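User: Show me a protein chain along with its predicted structure.
Assistant: Here is one chain, sequence first, then structure tokens.
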Amino acid sequence: MELIVFDMAGTTVHDENKVGLTLQTVLKEFGYDFSLDQINVVMGYEKPVAISILLEEKRPELINKIHQVFVAKMIAFYEKSNDVKATSNAHETIQYLRKNGIKVAFDTGFSRPIADAIFEKLNWKQGVDFDFSITSDEVEHGRPYPDMIFRAMEHFNIADASLVGKVGDTMSDLQQGENAKCGLVVGVTTGAYSREELEHHFHHYIIDDLSELKNKL
């Protein structure tokens, strides 16, 4: 492996379904009532796309208005909450990979402002703690499309996706890795999906802690 692309919330960033709960709250403010099970189906997707899927709604002005409220709430949470922390062994695993010559990138269904708020809160700096990050608003298509993985590959001049791994906690992460034809696709049970739910989707391994990743390379 030359590059591992990690998801953020639920994979490398501890998340007790805060993303899903926040989206549920925002949708309720706009008069839409969804269960967490319904919302979890679209976790990992670019958030405006997730909102559009849930509402079966195509009007961009409404989608954007809901998304703006969601972004504001998530940034406030990541800036102020003491619950924001890395998942178990995330930082140690990332440093192990980098010390062994494997590049580490983050991708996310969040927009850039939310991702940057997370990096700031965790004091994770590009070039020091990881090598690259890409957000869903910086590519044409978010997950499950492979655009973010391809952008990371371009950044590191990697042409062969079999040398790239994708690690994430949602169905869309695994689909993204499959669509990019990654040589390693790993689901992790620390986020939105259980092992049983992840097992229904393409993967090479499913792990319960990121420390297990080093034995799967």
